[in-house]
Amino acid sequence: MSDLNLLGSIKLSSADSLLHNRGKLLRIISSLDSDPTRTIPFVAKLSDAMRWYVQWGKQSTLILHYQPAQRPQRRQDRLVFSLQCEGLMKSLPQHIQGTGSPQEQTLPQETRLIFALPKQPPPDELARLAHDFMEPSREELFAAVQSEQEKSEKLVLNILPKKIAKALKSSQTSSGLIYDFHPSTTILFSDEAGFTSLTRELQPERLVRMINQLFSEFDNLCEHHGIEKIKTIGDAYMAVCGVPSAVENHAEQASRMALDMLRVHTDLMRSQGINLGIRIGLHSGPVVAGVIGRKKYAYDIWGDAVNVASRMESTCMQDCIQISEATKNLLPEHFQVESRGSVEIKSCGKMDTYFLRSAGEVPNLIYEK
């Protein structure tokens, strides 16, 4: 086709974009031709073609050209809609092929639909047409803003607990600080035994893949047992039960998670042929929790209980779970614990500690992938 004047192009990427652009195209063409018996069927045909391209193409583009009448043929001015597909994912399904060969057909790389105008639009009308075609509609802008807002909220929820993210969003405190005191919690620490030497032996990709898989399993356990993950520090994992919302049986929940962590760790290391141990420590007590930072938010906990839980892990034997007497006293009787005796704990002196062996009568290995 000759004498084609480009008016603009729009990307077609989702069902929502089809809905919004269909209404836009109908308004544009109706402003140039008020005959609904011509405009509505054409827009319906165009939107069907757009739907096929979006459904079966990786990326589609709708391009609009204006072609003035060519004399002496005295043809009408025309709008030329070109659908271009940059990649096909599937063949065109049978139910929209119509009659013809029973074999599957693929969408053409380009499809053109032409709409004849009843009269030649003035230049300013063409400029408006191009602007309306390229300008996002209110619905498209709202959908784009909503989509970005959802992405942002999901990102925040990956960093902060839902309750804390909601408080941060609404800025409920006059000081702008988000904090709370939690009188009864159980803190869990784990650390890989021999990880530093392993970093010198494994290839970087395998090392990162292994620790990512392990911590992802721990994240699943947190969600399963109602535990709040606080952070990872190198090869250490920190979590707490009873924060940001109170949990009556926090010691039991954290202990069950610790038992499942030990099982998951053993299974993963065995399956990958890696000789790596783990130490897990638990302690129960009060903590202060809050959000710190301005550019990179972090939800953290502080207090003596946190320090003691860390010491429970660092003084633990490999592939064992060491708990304090405070945690042991909160556990139901069916949990099986073994006294380790007095252990020197930095900044605390000697403390009676215990090894957690099993959940006793109630099966502890309740986590399933």
Would you write up a description of this structure?
The structure is a single chain. This protein has 2 domains: 130 residues, no CATH class; 182 residues, Nucleotide cyclase, GGDEF domain (Alpha-Beta Plaits). Helices cover 39% and strands 28% of the residues. It contains 10 helices and 12 strands. Strands 5, 6, 7, 8, 9, 10, 11 and 12 form an 8-stranded mixed beta sheet that branches. Strands 1-2-3-4 form a 4-stranded antiparallel beta sheet, covered by helices on one side. Helix 1 runs antiparallel to helix 2 and helix 7 runs antiparallel to helix 8. The longest helix is centred in the last third of the chain and has 23 residues. The relative contact order is 0.09. The C terminus is likely disordered.
Name the CATH superfamily assignment of the largest domain: Nucleotide cyclase, GGDEF domain
Distance N terminus to C terminus? 60 Å
Assembly annotation: single chain
User: Could you give a short account of the major beta sheet?
Assistant: 8 strands, mixed
Mean pLDDT figure: 84
Question: How would the blueprint of this fold be written?
Answer:
Layout: E1 5-12, H1 15-32, H2 36-56, E2 60-67, E3 78-85, E4 110-116, H3 123-134, H4 138-157, H5 162-170, E5 179-193, H6 195-199, H7 204-225, E6 228-233, E7 236-241, H8 250-272, E8 277-292, E9 298-302, H9 304-314, E10 320-324, H10 325-328, E11 336-345, E12 349-358
Parallel strand pairs: 8-10
Antiparallel strand pairs: 1-2, 2-3, 3-4, 5-7, 5-8, 6-7, 8-9, 10-12, 11-12
Helix pairs in contact: 1-2, 7-8
